[in-house]
Q: What sequence folds into this?
């Protein structure tokens, strides 16, 4: 007991890098490099910490090598490539700065592992715009919250932190109304502290759009003649529409990555149009659960450095946004790229795509690969092995991550910068 | 390294040098006195017949932070017409209304600017604003922290906390966000909009707190003065863009009771209600008030015709203006019980009465305000026009016949409603040097910038002496940053990072106890993680910190 406390270091107010909420109240204990969450964790972060970092080494086609050798071979691959793809992009601001520098330098395409979702939002932003809000506004102001196609369970502390929070400046948390629309949603978190159950409109994910459109029609004062819409009784929708109009500060939450069907951006568009319409008379706002692995940071940094959010192609010497064609899947399928770097420095559960082109993988130690890439380099995790910055899901707040333990692994940025020096 | 700029014609208002031939010596990044004859000069630039000024300083330009980045994200069509290729030296990017960070830095430097100040940094978004500014090379940066709609402050004001406590909070904010000054945007209005109030006049109360914009302005202006922040409270007033807001602006000038106040993009706040269309110029009245109140400075926020994007913290007024969005898309965001932002793309048309009159009102203000030390050249980039139109604007100010030619092309009724054609004034180079260098530097408390005296940082711009002032200011012959030649013939020849100007006003640290409690209970970030450390600014080698003294 004595020796244990002697070795253990307890760190407070630690920001967590494992989902885009970036909760920053964690209490972490470091006992000889073994990290445990003492307070304010969740299943996701605890799962990460329960795996102590396996001893991984750089490798060429599965054969261990020195880091210098791995970087040298990777640089050679990139040099010889005429259409490289930088994908995955699970990294922090600093890593992303290096990604952009490299991409500009070698004329690469960049695409994040979660950009399918990010791009659904981008399409709506570029076509229509929106009215949005942030976490502290929801926590203190929201009285009516609709979850459209998500139950926020990939963001385990969302309800604890901003829906059923203890203190609120302007709203009576106990009276918050919660509504779910969609399929396969676990609505248990929506039960209020006093036991009031949420309203659940169960429908296919593809049908959310129709429900939102009908709500819009009703709120705009137009008649609907169908008695049942997407399996939901018109009366239910009329009641909901009234509640929305009467809300003082309503929020519609969606997770673009979870609206996973063709043209899901149209669903987001309908949500944003409805929010804008409600804003004419009351206050309503949208809120996005963006996905983890630094996707918000990658998207924002890409926009400030190139002018375009993800996906961007630099092959002509200037940035070019092409949201459809530049997806990792398409580029690999259509053989439009001839070398791949895949980066994932947070979760060890992300798998790089297997492609028949020279592949360089920069991943968290212990990442299970189902093929032997030309180059594998284990990398440090931001917020665990080194400090860094990440942008939160609301695209407003960003946090500085802490270094929690000593690590023998190098950061994504260090490795990419060394490659750039060799190119 | 000792450099001599030989024989140029120097405009240095701080030292009363108005177009005199002088040699300037640069050593190790600073301007130095003439060395002894025995000292070896490493490099001589023969600048006979060239014009020399200090590097220009933009006191109000939206170059970094969330709302600018949303503008970038939402306007791919605007970027596509101005894509910028990488070169051996420079990074790729894009330009026009909401340029990428690298391109913004390059273009500012290529236009002879050596410092740019982001005027609307939300404390909640400060970290990102600094990250973007760190990726804006070539120029020094600095930012003004936005207060006045944040719940913590309004709560203090409503509870009638004493002025020391408010100063402590303001001082803490400047320190925690690495800011250079305090900005207030539609005082209390961004907050009121969250409670669904759609308009807030100077003496109207925010329904939730029972506090009026007048009280907010007075309280913040006082705190800024008491903390010794060199730049006066930087105010984007009530009722932006509303016909008749001239009266609000005049009332605001009186509201501060002689305390220093900077009225930003005052063009958007100088509207009367005369004429058939109930929209008229209030420039004469505003200019007169500025002329007779030495505590007031302004920047104009000139409108120039074409497509741009308006990006503002003023959600209330951006929402009411969204009907005019062009193209038809817009963003409003409520942010962290702190503030908000609104982004509305807009096209100013010369044949449109209102837009044409806005153009004329801006120019009237420039020309009717007598003291160029107190009126600064801005377009409120990108709100009135992108910063790249500054050379054109300078020509409008310096060249009366060019101005009148332009006036003849705008909407006829607007031209007729403006006194512009009757104004003979042409700005001189000396006055331009005041309004784009010496004045902003003095206003911001940058003692070693904006002039060319011994001991100043060698931020220097050399122009060809051309009759066409647009051409002259578009493409400097040389720009020196910290003594290094970074631009030649209007093109980047060397990349530098630029630094970040900050202030460290003293405040009573015990305010952090109540802030900590507040953050723990109501915010979604911890107070310790909110604060931006020096390390973060310098970490990636993209910037260094320049701490400016308080007065
Ligand atoms: S909810 Fe997300 S950020 Fe918060 S502790 Fe869990 S994984 Fe980390």
A:
């Amino acid at each position: 007991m004595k020796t244990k406390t002697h070795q253990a270091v307890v760190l407070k107010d630690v920001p967590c890098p494992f989902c885009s909420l970036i909760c920053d109240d964690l209490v972490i204990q470091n006992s000889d490099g073994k990290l445990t969450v003492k307070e304010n964790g969740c299943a996701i972060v605890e799962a990460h910490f329960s795996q102590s970092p396996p001893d991984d080494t750089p490798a060429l086609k599965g054969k261990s090598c020195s880091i210098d050798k791995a970087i040298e071979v990777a640089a050679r691959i990139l040099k010889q490539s005429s259409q490289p793809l930088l994908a995955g992009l699970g990294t922090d601001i600093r890593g992303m700065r290096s990604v952009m520098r490299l991409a500009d330098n070698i004329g690469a395409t960049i695409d994040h592992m979660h950009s399918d979702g990010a791009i659904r939002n981008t399409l709506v932003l570029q076509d229509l715009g929106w009215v949005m809000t942030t976490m502290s506004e929801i926590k203190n102001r929201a009285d009516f919250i609709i979850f459209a196609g998500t139950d926020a369970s990939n963001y385990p502390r969302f309800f604890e932190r901003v829906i059923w929070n203890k203190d609120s400046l302007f709203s009576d948390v106990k009276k918050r109304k919660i509504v779910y629309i969609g399929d396969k949603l676990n609505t248990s978190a929506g039960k209020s502290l006093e036991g009031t159950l949420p309203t659940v409109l169960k429908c296919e994910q593809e049908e959310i759009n129709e429900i939102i459109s009908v709500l819009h029609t009703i709120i705009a004062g137009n008649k609907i003649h169908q008695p049942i819409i997407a399996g939901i009784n018109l009366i239910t929708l009329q009641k909901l529409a009234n509640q929305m109009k009467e809300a003082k500060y309503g929020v519609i939450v969606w997770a673009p990555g979870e609206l996973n069907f063709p043209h899901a951006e149209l669903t987001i568009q309908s949500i944003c149009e409805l929010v804008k319409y409600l804003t004419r008379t009351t206050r309503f706002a949208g809120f996005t659960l963006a996905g983890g692995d630094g996707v918000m940071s990658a998207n924002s940094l890409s926009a400030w450095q190139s002018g375009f959010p993800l996906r961007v192609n630099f092959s002509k010497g200037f940035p070019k946004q092409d949201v459809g064609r530049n997806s990792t899947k398409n580029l690999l399928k259509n053989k439009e790229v001839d070398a791949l770097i895949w980066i994932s420095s947070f979760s060890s559960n992300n798998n790089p795509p297997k492609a028949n082109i020279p592949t360089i993988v920069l991943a968290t130690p212990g990442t299970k690969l189902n093929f032997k890439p030309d180059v594998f380099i284990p990398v440090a995790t931001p917020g665990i092995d080194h400090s860094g910055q990440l942008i939160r899901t609301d695209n407003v707040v960003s946090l500085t991550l802490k270094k929690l333990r000593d690590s023998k692994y190098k950061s994504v940025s260090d490795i990419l910068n060394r490659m750039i020096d060799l190119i | 390294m000792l450099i001599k700029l030989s024989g140029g014609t120097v405009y240095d208002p701080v030292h009363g040098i108005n177009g005199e031939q002088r040699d300037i010596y640069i050593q190790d990044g600073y301007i130095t006195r003439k060395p002894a004859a025995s000292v070896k000069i490493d490099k001589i630039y023969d600048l006979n017949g060239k014009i020399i000024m200090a590097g220009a300083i933009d006191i109000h330009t939206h170059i970094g932070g969330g709302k600018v980045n949303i503008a970038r994200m939402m306007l791919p069509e605007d970027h596509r017409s101005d894509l910028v290729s990488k070169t051996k030296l420079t990074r790729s990017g894009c330009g026009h209304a909401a340029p990428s960070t690298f391109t913004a830095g390059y273009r500012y430097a290529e236009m002879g600017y050596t410092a740019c100040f982001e005027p609307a940094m939300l404390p909640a978004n400060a970290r990102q604003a600094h990250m973007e500014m760190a990726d804006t090379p070539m120029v020094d940066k600095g930012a003004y922290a936005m207060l006045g709609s944040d719940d913590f402050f309004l709560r203090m004001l409503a509870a009638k906390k004493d002025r020391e406590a408010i100063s402590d909070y303001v001082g803490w904010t400047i320190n925690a966000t690495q800011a250079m000054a305090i900005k207030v945007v539609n005082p209390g209005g961004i907050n009121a909009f969250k409670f669904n109030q759609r308009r807030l006049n100077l003496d109207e109360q925010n329904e939730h707190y029972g506090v009026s914009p007048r009280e907010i302005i007075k309280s913040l202006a006082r705190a800024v003065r008491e903390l010794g922040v060199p730049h006066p409270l930087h105010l984007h007033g009530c009722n932006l863009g509303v016909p008749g807001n001239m009266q609000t602006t005049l009332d605001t000038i009186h509201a501060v009771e002689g305390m220093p106040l900077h009225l930003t993009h005052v063009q958007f706040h100088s509207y009367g209600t005369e004429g058939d269309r109930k929209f008229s110029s209030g420039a004469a009245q505003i200019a007169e008030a500025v002329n007779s109140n030495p505590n007031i400075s302004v920047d104009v926020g000139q409108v120039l015709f074409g497509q741009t994007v308006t990006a503002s913290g003023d959600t209330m007024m951006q929402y009411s203006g969204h009907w005019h969005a062009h193209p038809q898309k817009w963003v409003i965001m409520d942010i962290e019980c702190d503030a908000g932002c609104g982004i509305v793309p807009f096209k100013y048309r010369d044949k449109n009465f209102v837009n044409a009159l806005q153009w004329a009102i801006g120019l009237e203000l420039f020309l009717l305000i007598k003291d160029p030390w107190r009126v600064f050249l801005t377009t409120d980039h990108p709100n009135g026009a992108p910063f790249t139109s500054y050379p054109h604007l300078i020509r409008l100010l310096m060249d009366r016949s060019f101005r009148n030619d332009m006036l003849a092309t705008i909407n006829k009724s607007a031209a007729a409603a403006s006194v512009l054609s009757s104004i003979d004034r042409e700005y001189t180079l000396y006055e331009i040097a005041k309004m784009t260098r010496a004045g902003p530097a003095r206003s911001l408390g940058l003692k070693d910038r904006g002039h060319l005296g011994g001991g100043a940082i060698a931020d220097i711009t050399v122009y060809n002496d051309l009759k066409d002032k647009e051409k002259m200011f578009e493409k400097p012959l040389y720009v020196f940053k910290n003594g290094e030649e970074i631009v030649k013939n209007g093109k980047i020849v060397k990349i530098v990072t630029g630094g970040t100007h900050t202030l460290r006003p003293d405040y009573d640290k015990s305010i952090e106890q109540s802030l900590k409690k507040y953050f723990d209970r109501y915010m979604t970030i911890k107070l310790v993680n909110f604060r931006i450390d020096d390390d973060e600014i310098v970490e990636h080698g993209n910037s260094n910190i320049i701490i400016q003294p308080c007065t």
Observations:
- Residues 1-5 of chain A have pLDDT under 50 and may be disordered.
- Chain A has three domains: 9-49, 59-114+293-422, 119-288.
